[in-house]
## 1
Amino acid sequence: LFGAIEMAPRDPILGITEAFNADTNPAKINLGVGVYYDNNGKVPLLECVQKAEAKLMEQPAPRTYLPIDGLAAYDKAVQELVFGADSAVIQEKRAITVQALGGTGALKIGADFLKRFLPNSDVYISDPSWENHRALFESAGFTVHNYAYYDPSTRGVNFDGMLAALKAMPAGAIVVLHACCHNPTGADLSQEQWDQVIATVQAGGLVPFLDMAYQGFANGIDEDGAVVRRFAATGMPLLVSNSFSKSFSLYGERVGALSIVATSGEEASRVLSQLKRVVRTNYSNPPTHGGKVVATVLSTPELRKLWEEELAGMRVRIREMRGAMVEKLKAKAPGHDFEFVREQVGMFSYSGLTKEQVGKLRDESIYAVDTGRICVAALNSTNIDRVVDAVAKVL
Ligand code: PLP
Ligand code: TYF
């Protein structure tokens, strides 16, 4: 039965973690996967999460099935976080939100839903994009194309190319946009550029699918969410996937959500009914724990404040590591300009290192992605000098 099955290719990023785990060098450093580590090199268990868990355990609840669309308190809190509590799309009941298995699960139910109702549309993702975007939409049955995004010569966004690509897309095309902290490049659009993108998407009758996996890691929770609000304000149909894997450091709990904005409350309830059908035939209903923790934090003022502080702490530490890397490379690799690392936002930097240079780093047990992407959130005051020395050596 399985005799003819071929070996599937490894996930290019999670595969690095497998190689890293197998490395016996105690000084090994994993700059591959997008995970935030604190200055001690540990994945933090946020205090707001611990306090929410303690609070939940004061009145331990049975683990019955959740509704298909998840915990109502969670969906409501997420909606307010993503669109803003005073949002017209919430007040007019045009937005629906479904708890999902992380950002990946949100993208997958969104993709399955879209395939059912826009079977002839193609999907467009940025060049480059998160590796899983293409695979996810292809596995839902779509043909996936790239739109121009990154310009290696400026280490920024090829905005003219991006706009031209958007203008050339047929009406009904699905455009996946990174709301903030572009993965893998760390290069985001300016507010003015977003204005032009929004106008072009609307004029072309395109279907925007905003993926927000790093809300709070660029400039702040509200600042990063602003782009979703601006899309929503146009009144056009919109899909938004969001994830709490990074912002709550709850990777393994699989907490995310898919929100869809429709053109009326009545249309939204039909959309929700179909989305629930997608969920039901995939995994029936989401798990309880992560959703309860996040809902508790978001809806308890003192825990919410604590979360905002802890998230700001992660954001600031990453920025400090960017600055430290630039300054240290200035000293160790004169003649090479790494100032751009300071300008990039979120967890990643497209460092400009070649595949060959990444290979040489690996010989020193420093793991990065072949594309040159490094996770700046994995740098700390203990490992940064070793990383900078190794980078200077391979340049
Ligand atoms: N979208 C992007 C751009 C990501 O980088 C990630 C990272 O994991 C995801 C979606 C998926 O989020 P999750 O890990 O919550 O499934
Ligand atoms: O890009 C990253 O590193 C994160 C984590 O299949 C990740 O988004 C990577 C690959 C993958 C799932 C998550």
## 2
Amino acid sequence: SAAEKGGYDYFMLKEIAEQPKAVADTLRGRLTEAGEITLDEVRLSDQDLRDVDKIFIVACGTAYHAGLVAKYAIEHWTRIPCEVELASEFRYRDPVLDRSTLVVAISQSGETMDTIMALRHAKVQKARVLAISNTNGSTIPRESDAVLYTHAGPEVAVASTKAFLTQLVACYLVGLHLAQVRGIKYADEVGAVVAQLQAMPSKVDEVLATMEPVRELGRSLGSARSVLFIGRHVGYPVALEGALKLKELAYMHAEGFAAGELKHGPIALIDDGTPVICVLPSPRGRAVLHDKMISNIQEVRARGARVVAIAEEGDTAVAPHADHVVYVPRTPTLLAPLVTTVPLQVLAAEIAATRGHDVDQPRNLAKSVTVE
Ligand code: G6P
């Protein structure tokens, strides 16, 4: 009913709007005033966590994209090698696991069969399994050694939004907690990152307040034949997520690419007017990557692309090269997906609505896929 949707046309729009609160709820009680992480509910001893010498993240769909972002943060903060794998591929390729491997299973529903089977495989190999889930008491948390709940509240729309942002937050907490427990070099950063994490709910709120031009843009993209998304570093998984949202909701051909791969094939897809959504890194944090993205934008534009840039406030270099710039608040590079993803969610919902689709119940898709 309209009341359940809180005045929004679709649950997805309500859930997009709930993201600042959801992010705050995931953080609540897990950061101390001294800038430390407390994950008391993670029932793995500090010694277990110090013994971890390899991490696998397994997940499907949007949760897999959260895992791809997590790899950048976890390896940077902990120096523990971290691989991310689609749950449906994991157990069939004989992955190398033992008791010092930590497997992180990310699942909003906690009931995705591919992810359940991946975690069962991990347990047989004696790995420790940590679940990140939004659903209390669901199968994945129950079968795991430890769980971190995202507390995003129920997500009704098939396309995941607030669950994704809170999965990112949970992954950041896991990475910071590991760094802290192991006392390694990057643990120095933990205090600073904690403060930056605490600022994220209000930054997501700022993004939401500036979405009208994005909706307008969405209405103008409804007849595109194909939409490409490019990014580097954590902007790459954000590009994948933006493309997935568009496929799911608008039934349009959409692909996400690592911007550096363009020249190895995807650039051949670009012709006159092809929309290319470009997720830029902060020019302050990763200047080299930012320069490279600007070059990539010039390359696609020279082939006729219609460039939409998602860039940080104060990024003056991008505007001359883009047809449209969406500015997001200044954010440390590793946390940027919490803000850069939001315009892509809004864009996909608006394009889908423009094309007359049911934004909450896309054809052929299920909220939770309980078959392998
Ligand atoms: C389905 C949903 C996606 C979701 C994926 C993984 O495909 O349509 O939105 O990302 O399952 O779901 P999970 O509950 O495991 O996060």
